[in-house]
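User: quick one, fold this
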Amino acid sequence: MNESIGYARCSLDEQDLTAQRGILLGLGVAEDRIYLDHGLTGTNRDRPGLDQALAAVRAGDTLVVPKLDRLARSVPDARNIGDSLITRGVTLALGGTLYDPADPMGKMFFNILATFAEFEVDLLRMRTREGIAVARSKGKLKGKQPKLTARQQAHLVKEHRSGEHTIADLAELFSVSRATVYRVLERAGNTDR
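Assistant:
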């Protein structure tokens, strides 16, 4: 019996797979035949959900993915997956459109889509680098702000030098972790613990 096996992926932990899962269910994939990767990028080939989906498909089955960029974000990776599907006799459906990577026309469309997916990733990286460079040049990208103001840090160092407070006392007094207290003292040149 030929089955539809679904695969969905999102790159960030904050993202939700509900929409992709809904697309797969709408395309006839059974809930228990959907494999997911959450918080993994498409360029990372170590994706357990994808490995499970590829292990689940058999000759005559269809691997269903909402969009090609959910499956692969580089042309070589897409080709490897496509070649693997061909040798196993598995059809690929992208967003409801069937692609037979063994058919010359299907292979051409698949490769074109893979090229666009890779292009999209490259553009995103380029824009991110440009955005970071612009933010740095404007002084808006300063990194993580310290937990204590300069005045609070000076007060913490003064209290530590008085010898009346332990590190744990200072952490509680300033509502910070012991590690933060140690960092402030280290920066001030008080490395004695």
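User: anything notable?
Assistant: The first helix runs from residue 18 to 26.
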